[in-house]
Design goal:
- With 432 residues, the protein is α/β, with parallel strands linked by helices.
- The protein is built from 18 helices and 14 strands.
- It folds into two domains: 239 residues, Rossmann fold; 160 residues, Rossmann fold, CATH 3.40.50.2000.
- The strands form two sheets. Strands 1, 2, 3, 4, 5, 6, 7 and 8 form an eight-stranded mixed beta sheet that branches.
- The termini are far apart.
């Protein structure tokens, strides 16, 4: 009998040949005539950014006849994740629903360990894919490692070299990096980080960032057919041709950091009444409390609920500049030609800083005010940042990941794949 974790598809009604003993002539990664062996890949996602960045990967895997792909949502950020997946026509095959109010990292991790291990015991996949640096990533990678399941880490090799910034993301991605079998590095710099840590070149694929795949696809769609926005946002955009778009959720900014950020926004709004300041506020209570307490009674400030991915891409595309502590937004903004001021002291995405399309401003009110002022009023500075080359990818990362997994499983690339497009350009392939 075939191992339980190998899925078979019989083509054309033909049964595979059998040995005289009646044993099926089939092995993992090797097809016999009339038989296609499917490599089972389980993809874990827990947060909205993971959903956005893994949606193109799931689609690329499902375009391969050789793969069976199971999408598992841990529900770490359940509502926002479901909405993000829906924007790509996806939904989880399994929803672990671990989210609880006021959860701690320890309590979240304990529930994730139990739930993910049960899923892996039941499904027994050939590969587990995790993306980025969330608690879902760390726990998913460790559970797969414990069960001797091969692990692919998407967006591998990012390093801030500060365990407390971003917290706990720097630890999460390092743990995933320790146990991963294949590392899908978004940039040559990320690959170099892995090489310096002792990862062999054969286990590292420089792919570009899958978030750019999702962004470019979605941006093209929303430009053709803009999404319906809530009335209050539509009216706000109509009255404010210039928009500063703001996002913030980083743990290291909780407390004084967010208070400083909010004071800066309030002052900038007072100084620039002709500019609209639009802030879709994260659902975390530690974010919402200072935002709604400090930023109020400004006619050119709109505090909205978090937006679905399509709507948020539309808002990024419509904005003049972006103020954010998000890792993903650091990658997305340059692809849309939008300068981004990063409200963090350090970043694991230095490529944007080096290219000149992003700038670190931390959570200092004075620094935020100074740099937003400069970009709003210095046209030459604005153009330099807006026109800087995006270093994060060309929109074909997901296809490269699917083909790399197919090669690792002994399967051929998808016949429908545009192989020329999937080949990294000189910038992607060149080591930093």
């Amino acid at each position: 009998m075939l191992p339980s974790n190998i899925q078979c598809l019989f083509v054309g009604g033909r049964m595979p040949r059998r040995q005289n003993s009646g044993v099926l002539l089939a092995r993992r990664n090797r097809c016999v005539p009339g038989l296609i062996l499917m490599t089972h890949v389980v993809v874990f996602v827990g947060t909205r950014p993971e959903g956005v960045k893994m949606a193109p990967v799931v689609k690329a895997l499902r375009a391969h006849l050789e793969f069976r792909c199971t999408l598992v949502s841990t529900g770490q950020h359940r509502e926002m994740l479901q909405r993000a997946l829906a924007d790509f026509g996806l939904g989880p095959d399994i929803d672990l629903d671990v989210m609880q109010p006021s959860q701690t990292l320890a309590s979240l991790s304990s529930r994730l360990f139990a739930a993910i291990d049960e899923v892996l015991e039941r499904l027994r996949p050939d590969w587990v894919l995790v993306q980025g640096d969330t608690t879902t990533v760390q726990v998913g990678a460790l559970c797969a490692f414990y069960r001797h399941i091969r692990i692919g880490h998407v967006e591998a090799g990012l390093r801030s070299r500060d365990m407390l910034a971003p917290f706990p993301e720097e630890l999460n991605r390092r743990v995933a990096g320790l146990v991963a079998d294949l590392h899908f590095a978004p940039t040559p710099g990320a690959a170099e980080n892995l090489y310096r840590e002792g990862v062999s070149e054969g286990r590292v694929q420089i792919t570009g960032n899958t978030g750019i795949d999702a962004l470019l696809q979605t941006a093209a769609e929303v430009r053709r057919s803009p999404p319906s926005l809530p009335d209050e946002i539509a009216r706000f955009l109509a009255h404010h041709p210039r928009i500063v778009l703001i996002t913030g959720h980083r743990r290291e900014n909780f407390g004084e950091g967010f208070q400083n950020i909010c004071r800066a926004i309030s002052q900038l709004a007072a100084e620039n009444p002709e500019v609209g300041f639009l802030y879709p506020v994260h659902l975390n209570p530690q974010v919402r409390k200072p935002v709604f307490e400090i930023i109020r009674d400004r006619p050119n400030v709109l505090l909205s609920e978090p937006q679905e991915y399509r709507s948020f891409v539309h808002l990024m595309d419509r904005s003049t500049l972006i103020l954010s502590d998000s890792g993903g937004v650091q990658e997305e903004a340059p692809s849309l030609g939008k300068p981004v001021l990063v409200m963090r002291e350090v970043t694991e995405r230095p490529e944007g800083i080096a290219a000149g399309c992003a700038e670190l401003v931390g959570s200092s009110s004075e620094r935020i005010i100074e740099r937003v002022r400069a970009l709003l009023h210095d046209k030459a500075l604005y153009q330099r940042m807006a026109q800087a080359q995006n270093p994060y990818g060309d929109g074909a990362a997901s296809g490269r990941i699917a083909d790399a997994l197919a090669a690792a499983a002994g399967a051929s690339p998808s016949p429908a794949a545009d192989q020329e497009k999937r080949r990294p350009d000189a910038k992607l392939a060149e080591k930093a």
